[in-house]
Structure formats: structure tokens, C-alpha cells
Write a structure and sequence with these properties.
Elements: E1 11-12, H1 20-33, H2 40-51, E2 55-57, E3 60-61, E4 77-88, E5 94-102, H3 107-119, H4 122-130, H5 134-144
Helix pairs in contact: 1-2, 3-5
């Protein structure tokens, strides 16, 4: 049976983090804990961030691993951190929703597409930040896609 890309265990509501590194590490650890990636993937997410920011605008960051880390991906998955107070992703760019992603093969492109569709409207991002449950977040994804 194929593993679900997003489950309630992948979503962390009302998270407080002190740095983008802490946010990226937490997003990656959620993927590790739920069997999507090996531990080495988390380090590759940090390496990827060092190359160029994964901050996308509209209070969104989408940290992911480098191409070299593909072998550390066991199944495609998304982790979502809701950070109502935001975390600085550099140059004053505040991220309030962090999507950690891992995609088998080219599946990460599909994941990015779904996130981009949802988050292209800042109102949807505000709804994600205000969501009180996993179900509310899932409903937003289902509406957008």
C-alpha cells in the first residue's frame, strides 16, 4: 500500500522556532519520524537552504533536500509547520507556514505544484496560519487542488 503523502502526524500546529535552521530541522524530523526519509535527508535540507533560500514569498518556505539526497527518500511526503509568530528566513522574510517536502523521483514537482496553487493566494496562507486542526488544513488543500 502506498504511504499517504500528508497525514495528521505530519502537521505541527502553533510551533515556535528561533531560527530557520531550527524550522528546517523540525520539518525534516517530522518526515524522518513518519518514515518518509532517512536521517541524512535533514542535513541535505540544511545544505539546500545554504545554496539558496527556500522562502517563496506569501509567508511560505518549502525546505527540501538536494538532488544528491534522493537516495535518502523512502516515500513522497509533506510535513507542515504552522508558525503563527513567523520565523525569519533571511533578509526579514518571515515564514509562517513551512512545508518540508520529499519526493520520490519527480514527485516533488507535483507536491510543489499543489503547494504553489494553494499558497498563491495570501488569503489561503492566512487560513493555514489560523487553522486549528489537521482537518482544517486538509480542507484547504482539497479546495485548492
Amino acid at each position: 500500500m502506498k504511504k499517504a503523502i500528508l497525514t495528521a502526524q505530519n502537521v505541527k500546529l502553533n510551533v515556535t522556532v528561533n531560527s530557520k535552521e531550527q524550522a528546517i530541522r523540525l520539518a525534516g524530523e517530522v518526515l524522518v519520524e513518519n518514515g518518509y526519509v532517512n536521517e541524512s535527508y535533514v542535513e541535505s535540507m540544511l545544505e539546500r537552504e545554504a545554496l539558496t533560500t527556500t522562502f517563496m514569498g506569501n509567508f511560505i518556505a518549502i525546505p527540501h533536500g538536494t538532488d544528491a539526497s534522493k537516495k535518502a527518500i523512502l516515500a513522497s511526503g509533506i510535513s507542515i509547520l504552522q508558525v503563527p509568530n513567523g520565523v525569519d528566513f533571511g533578509n526579514g522574510n518571515l515564514a509562517k507556514v513551512i512545508f518540508g517536502i520529499a519526493g520520490v523521483g519527480d514527485e516533488h514537482l507535483e507536491l510543489l505544484s499543489q503547494i504553489a496553487i494553494l499558497c498563491s493566494e495570501v488569503e489561503n496562507v492566512e487560513k493555514l496560519v489560523a487553522a486549528k486542526s489537521y482537518e482544517a488544513i486538509m480542507a484547504l488543500f482539497e479546495e485548492a487542488v
